[in-house]
Write a structure and sequence with these properties.
Layout: H1 2-8, E1 15-16, H2 21-26, E2 32-33, H3 35-43, H4 48-53, E3 55-57, E4 59-64, E5 67-72, H5 73-77, E6 81-83, H6 86-96, E7 101-102, E8 106-111, E9 118-123, E10 126-131, E11 135-137, H7 144-148, E12 155-170, E13 180-183, E14 189-195, E15 198-206, H8 216-226, H9 229-234, E16 240-254, E17 257-258, E18 261-263, E19 269-270, H10 278-299, H11 303-330, H12 337-353, H13 355-366
Parallel strand pairs: 1-7, 4-13, 11-18
Antiparallel strand pairs: 2-6, 3-6, 4-5, 8-9, 9-10, 12-15, 12-16, 13-14, 14-15, 16-19, 17-18
Helix pairs in contact: 10-11, 12-13
The structure holds P-hydroxybenzoic acid (PHB).
The site of P-hydroxybenzoic acid (PHB) has 9 residues, from loops.
């Protein structure tokens, strides 16, 4: 997205990608776009297929031990979300991009980003060098960018949750028109979707769980257990077309600027997937960063790049809070015991009875400004 926004402003930007294009397009990732991300895709000129094929969701369901609560986004805050896979967002941006993307760029190294930055990488056994004005570190949690920053210049904040999500993709219609976030004493479950014929389901699993231990049959049995009986009855199952486990983590690095290097997206922060914020936060970062870089290049003003870190972090921490809160409400935490479960139940009951509480959930879920 950043590469596209910059090229629209006639600023050259080279994208270095460690993997192949096919690998990038084969990865199943998030599924919910805030409207800010929808607008950004439109600004990038890449929103056509999303509007044709994406599903506008006006609300979502939460269940707690089978009791159901509907959160009506439109009625509560007058906004919606778009269900459209991150993989499809990436495909649409790749298709429209005119600038250079170098796939299978190995051993990326950042140099002199305090003053006159340059980047080296290896491809087909040859080392290449790119001299540049700025480096945007959009290379994820394990990428080279954050790792290049001297330890004393960066501070990190982290919470690792004692569980993961096992996800399954299946070519069957979604069990419900809306997403269902389910708290059950056996653990959390989520019914999501990618299209009217393709569904995405998750169950909370133990932190060290191996995906090989989960046959399709075991997954479907566990999911059914965690849903309310009426939903479980309607669930259509089939052979999984993708199955993977993701650990849950909250993480923030501060600041986001180191001279001419800027961190964005997962390079700077991780959220647990419960609030559907990962992709949206990354989009928020690059929306701010693109404008800041355009201002710096076209107007010679550093105001935007000077304030990038503080502006982005203010938004990031609110999404961190919401994602942590949704995770805390909906999962089973082995260490908090019976008291913890009663508090979770009280939180669900409070939500059920309070329009104000529902409004707060909805306001965060559809996305803060
Ligand atoms: C997904 O469809 O993959 C998905 C949806 C909502 C979430 C997390 C993941 O909160």
């Amino acid at each position: 997205m950043l590469g596209r926004l910059l090229e629209q402003a006639r600023i050259d930007a080279v994208i270095l990608e460690r993997k192949s294009a096919d690998y990038v397009l084969g990865r199943i990732r998030a599924g919910v776009l805030e409207w800010g991300a929808v607008d950004l895709l439109d600004r990038a000129g890449a929103g056509q297929r999303m509007h044709a094929e994406g599903l506008v969701h006006h609300g979502t369901a939460l269940t707690f031990d089978g009791d159901r609560l509907h959160i009506d986004f439109t009625g509560l805050v007058g906004k919606q979300v778009m269900v459209y896979g991150q993989t499809e967002v990436t495909r649409d941006l790749m298709a429209i991009r005119e600038g250079t993307t170098i796939y299978e760029a190995e051993d990326v190294q950042l140099h002199d980003f305090d003053r006159r930055p340059w980047v080296t990488y290896r491809r087909d056994g040859t080392t290449h060098r790119i001299d540049c004005d700025f480096i945007a570190g959009c290379d994820g949690y394990h990428g080279a960018s954050r790792a290049s920053v001297p330890e004393g210049s960066i501070r990190t904040f982290e919470r690792v949750y004692p569980f993961g999500w096992l996800g399954v993709l299946v070519d069957k219609p979604p069990v419900d028109p809306e997403l269902i976030y389910a708290h059950h004493q056996r653990g959390f479950a989520l019914c999501s979707q990618r299209s009217p014929t393709r569904s995405r389901y998750y169950v909370q699993v133990e932190a060290q769980e191996q995906v090989e231990a989960w046959s399709d049959d075991r997954f479907w049995d566990e999911l059914r257990h965690r849903l309310d009986p009426e939903t479980a009855e309607r669930l259509e199952i089939g052979p999984s077309i993708e199955k993977s486990i993701a650990q849950l983590r909250s993480f923030v690095a501060e600041p986001l600027r180191f001279g001419k290097l800027f961190l964005a997206g997962d390079a700077a922060h991780i959220v647990p997937p419960t609030g559907a914020k990962g992709l949206n936060l990354a989009m928020g970062d690059v929306a701010i960063l693109a404008d800041a870089l355009i201002e710096a290049v076209q107007e010679g003003s550093e105001a935007g790049i000077d304030s990038y870190s503080a502006r982005a972090l203010a938004r990031i921490w609110k999404a961190e809070r919401f994602s942590w809160w949704m995770t805390s409400l909906l999962h089973v935490f082995p260490e908090t015991g019976a008291f913890g479960r009663r508090i979770q139940r009280a939180e669900f009951d409070y939500l059920s009875g309070s329009r104000v509480a529902q409004q707060s959930l909805a306001e965060n879920y559809v996305g803060l400004p």
